[in-house]
Amino acid sequence: MSDTGLKHSITEAMKAAMRARDQKRLGTIRLMLADIKRIEVDERIELDDARILAVLDKMQKQRRDSIEQFAQAGRQDLVDIETAEMEVIQTFLPAPFTDEELEILIEQAITESGAASAKDMGKVMGLLKQRAQGRADMTAINKKVKARLG
What is the pTM of this model? Predict the structure, then answer.
């Protein structure tokens, strides 16, 4: 079994964190690898880079949601932990889109799908999910598309 490029990078980062005795970074990287391995075992497949990006993107979303909830509960200690984990995960994701790039991407997806109203939102989001995976918050994109079509 050969590692994909991204999985190999994550494994190498884990080794580097072990050598540096960076326990916080190491813990987060181990969580990432455990999530990837769990899916590989459950589905009996080896994940490619695109699927690994989807896993990391999901982990980012979970961290964002947790940060929001912990902030509302006044638990700054937990917000700090989740933020630190989110920063480690971000190092393995591609650079996020700028607002201008997102607007262009949304416009292209609407044009390509022929979307005319909110009923066509599924078509647009399907195209955008493929193109923006790991590079943008899909919830924010969803709101922008809804505003544009709505």
Answer: 0.79
